[in-house]
Amino acid sequence: MIKVTNATKRYNKKKEPALKDISFQIQAGEFVYLTGPSGSGKTTLLKLLYKEEQLTKGSVQVDNIKVEKISSPKLHLLRRKIGIVSQEDLFLPQCTAFQNVAFVLEVVQTNQQQIVEKTLNALQRVGMLDVKDTLTKDLSIGQQKKIAIARAIVNQPSILIADEPTANLDVKSAVEMMKIFLNINQSGTSVIIATHDSTMVNSIRNRVLELSKGRLIRDDYSGGYSLFSDPKDVYVW
Ligand code: ADP
Ligand code: MG
């Protein structure tokens, strides 16, 4: 469960806030798109959820954690709940897909057999088992994105956040990506996707939170990229 109450984020006192007085709730198991043009505050809002940025005003709650109150030594408790696919997939250089996913588990010290099992399971869920021994730098952009998703879900988070996951992807890869997100959501994980890919939002209709200039201007359970969506703007699959 995510509860955001009157959240405001100001990076610079002299400029307009990046987010102004945002409130919404997301229940466990929901699939939500966060839409809006570039600069509207999508990435900032996601970062507030996992405390990569600090709130200026308001409050954010994730399950039983008050995000603005949690201290640094306890931050891992929040991060364990949330899998993150950020805009740039930063991988360990000179490491294979398997090693890049397994690394996340190694830092939380699970036993070796569990690391192997969980890593293979995550790679299988994104359809990337056959490239597990390939260096991530030798994979295509779409394959790298899937490895980033495997890395985000390997610890079985209750929430998966992805920031513009279909940017730079061709249509076929974008559709594959959406199927992966749907599959992850159907296993019970809440999924939040920031995107300005209207075709994606129109193809798989789900709740839409729309930002404009830092304000939440729409919270629509019937979905669609905007109120005036073109019915032809969908992927055919
Ligand atoms: P989006 O993801 O929708 O493109 P962002 O959250 O990245 O929007 O940006 C929202 C606003 O906050 C923009 O005006 C952007 O310039 C500003 N902003 C984002 N990150 C920072 C930062 N680290 N420092 C200062 N301003 C920032
Ligand atoms: Mg962004």
Tell me about this structure.
- Helix content is 31%, strand content 23%.
- With 237 residues, the chain is of the alpha/beta class.
- The chain folds into two domains: 25-81 and 161-228 and 233-237, Rossmann fold (3-Layer(aba) Sandwich); 86-156, no CATH class.
- Strands 6-7-8-3-9-10 form a six-stranded mixed β-sheet, sandwiched between helices.
- Helix 3 (97-106) packs across helix 4, helix 3 runs parallel beside helix 5 and helix 4 (112-125) crosses helix 5 (141-153).
- The longest helix has 16 residues, at 171-186.
- The chain is globular, with a radius of gyration of 18 Å.
- The mean pLDDT is 93.
- It binds adenosine-5'-diphosphate and magnesium ion.
- The site of magnesium ion has 3 residues, from helix 1.
Secondary-structure map:
Layout: E1 2-9, E2 19-26, E3 31-35, H1 42-49, E4 57-62, E5 65-66, H2 75-81, E6 82-85, H3 97-106, H4 112-125, H5 141-153, E7 159-163, H6 171-186, E8 190-194, H7 198-203, E9 207-212, E10 215-220
Parallel strand pairs: 3-8, 3-9, 6-7, 7-8
Antiparallel strand pairs: 1-2, 1-4, 4-5, 9-10
Helix pairs in contact: 3-4, 3-5, 4-5
Bound molecules: adenosine-5'-diphosphate and magnesium ion.
